[in-house]
């Protein structure tokens, strides 16, 4: 079976968030099956072009039409370390050779419409026709409609099935109505497919929901949540109408990279059978962040983008109560100025209790996952969430709000039987969160139970094994 992934990011080439991690791990895990051939298509961004580490090979070039525009398409390629996954890079300097972050430009809609069209056009030039095109988020969501509008009559194309994964429904790719003809080159007959439900604009994600053969989300709970207006950002009706195609498959993490026994970024390694290294990591973290070195106080950590939907407003509300407890709070991340300032200000006021690292440094993140005791994730919504999985892998007990993937991966802990995984709260309410933190801190003080639970967490299988099996079933169902 041939599977083509189309995405705006995939580590190690380009990553701005969880999508980049998933696009690194899932293709290579799938490719471990002998009868599966996997490729990943990415834009050839300036950051990839200018990085000598990525030694890409030129394959071919041609031009294609985007409405009335004649555009250049260059194709470069490279392979994953084990040669199992082929990466193709779509080169067009006008669209992708830009400084800074790869997204956030006024013409993102046109850039990703071009990318989607260029992928479909490449298949013919590469003589490579996959059984499945697996799309991810709005940036590649125009592929099914382009496929139906321009390629449906070509036999090699007409057999291709599409799977569309929603990693975050908040970003849908909404463009002005003129986009339909002016950029996409569609006739007005495609208007009803592309038109947004609420505004007079076009919506890439909506068209993929209508036209893909299957729709997935990155956890089961999120696949139900988005059928309701509170979570759907306007797409609940369309999703309900297409719910027979919709399923949730929770993400995994790369348990080889995230492994406290071998992680080279840690000052000390440890495992479920020997936790001494975790205590040593905690001491080293306190020293590194200028916090008092105390093993009788729990470190609560938070590694996140500092934006409202990650639940930062709840923290803002009760930050002083948290810091009144005998705890240390460590925050790493960047985001809205308001939250960056809030944490910096409390670090200034309570240097013995709070460390705010306003940057994203993945090596430091590993040291924080390992060196802290409790991991806070009070998200307002969370399609899957990877940080809680990484925290548990390092034996750090999660405190989460019961939403999306956090429900699927962090069942509430029964402190008597030690069934379950973490401390949870249901309502998006600051004092409910505070209560969960208090329960977690009180549990942490019970040393023997705590150790037993930490060992259970480290042993928990959060690898891609089960998700890959579910994806394989889904693909097989489509191609049979
Ligand atoms: C998005 C979601 C996050 C998910 C990730 C990977 O970033 O917000 O919850 O883990 O995609 O699927």
What does this structure look like?
The longest helix has 19 residues, at 108-126. The chain starts with a strand and ends with a helix. The radius of gyration is 23 Å and the shape is globular. The protein folds into 2 domains: 2-252 and 465-479, Rossmann fold, CATH 3.40.50.2000; 276-459, 3-Layer(aba) Sandwich (Rossmann fold), CATH 3.40.50. It has helices at residues 18-30, 46-49, 93-96, 108-126, 143-151, 155-158, 179-182, 191-194, 204-211, 220-225, 229-232, 236-241, 276-288, 312-324, 337-349, 362-371, 387-393, 404-409, 430-444, 447-459, 465-479, and strands spanning 2-6, 37-43, 57-66, 69-79, 85-91, 132-136, 161-166, 174-176, 201-203, 214-217, 246-248, 299-303, 328-332, 354-357, 374-377, 397-401, 423-425. The model has no long low-confidence stretch (mean pLDDT 97). The strands form 3 sheets. A 9-stranded mixed sheet has the order 3-4-5-2-1-6-7-10-11, sandwiched between helices. It has 480 residues and is an alpha/beta fold. Bound molecules: alpha-D-glucopyranose.
Biggest sheet strand order reads: 3-4-5-2-1-6-7-10-11
User: What's the helical proportion of residues?
Assistant: 25-40%
CATH topology of the largest domain: Rossmann fold
CATH superfamily of the largest domain: Glycogen Phosphorylase B
SS-derived structural category: alpha/beta
User: Given the C-alpha coordinates, what overall shape results?
Assistant: globular
């Amino acid at each position: 079976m041939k599977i083509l992934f189309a995405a705006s990011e995939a580590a190690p080439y380009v990553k701005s968030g969880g999508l980049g991690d998933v696009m690194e791990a899932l293709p290579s895990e799938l490719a471990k099956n002998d009868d599966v051939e996997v490729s990943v298509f990415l834009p050839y961004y300036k950051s990839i072009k200018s990085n000598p580490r990525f030694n890409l090979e030129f394959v071919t070039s041609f031009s294609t039409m985007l409405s009335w525009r004649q555009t250049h398409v260059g194709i470069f390629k490279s392979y994953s370390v084990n040669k199992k996954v082929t990466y193709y890079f779509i080169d067009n300097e006008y669209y992708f050779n830009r400084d800074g972050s790869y997204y956030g430009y006024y013409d993102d809609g046109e850039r990703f419409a071009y990318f989607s069209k260029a992928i479909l056009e490449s298949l013919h030039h590469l003589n490579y026709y996959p059984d499945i095109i697996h799309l991810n988020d709005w940036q590649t969501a125009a592929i099914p409609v382009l496929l139906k509008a321009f390629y449906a009559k070509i036999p090699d194309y007409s057999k291709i099935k599409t799977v569309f994964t929603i990693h975050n429904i908040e970003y849908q790719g909404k463009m002005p109505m003129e986009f339909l003809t002016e950029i996409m080159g569609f006739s007005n007959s495609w208007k009803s497919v592309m038109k947004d439900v609420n505004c007079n604009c076009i919506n890439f994600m909506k068209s993929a929901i209508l036209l893909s053969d299957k729709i997935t989300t990155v956890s089961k709970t999120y696949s139900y949540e988005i059928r309701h207006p509170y979570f759907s950002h306007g797409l609940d009706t369309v999703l309900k109408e297409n719910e027979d195609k919709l399923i949730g498959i929770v993400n995994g993490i790369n348990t080889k990279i995230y492994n406290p026994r071998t992680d080279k970024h840690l000052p000390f390694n440890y495992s479920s059978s020997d936790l001494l290294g975790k205590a040593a990591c905690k001491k080293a973290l306190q020293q590194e962040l200028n916090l008092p070195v105390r093993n009788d106080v729990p470190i609560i950590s938070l590694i996140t983008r500092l934006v409202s939907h990650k639940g930062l407003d709840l923290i803002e509300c009760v930050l002083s109560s948290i810091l009144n407890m005998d705890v240390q709070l460590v925050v790493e991340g960047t985001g809205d100025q308001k939250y960056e300032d809030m944490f910096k200000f409390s670090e200034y006021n309570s240097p013995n209790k709070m460390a705010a690292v306003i940057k994203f440094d993945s090596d430091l993140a590993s040291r924080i996952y390992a060196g802290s005791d409790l991991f806070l994730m009070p998200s307002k919504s969370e399609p899957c969430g990877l940080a809680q999985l990484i925290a548990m892998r390092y034996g750090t007990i999660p405190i989460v709000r019961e939403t999306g993937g956090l429900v699927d991966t962090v069942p509430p802990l029964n402190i008597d039987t030690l069934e379950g995984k973490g401390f949870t709260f249901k309502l998006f309410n600051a004092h409910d969160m505070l209560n969960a933190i208090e329960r977690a801190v009180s549990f942490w003080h019970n040393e023997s139970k705590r150790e037993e639970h930490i060992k259970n967490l480290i042993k928990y299988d959060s690898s891609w094994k089960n998700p890959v099996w579910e994806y394989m079933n889904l693909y097989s169902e489509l191609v049979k």
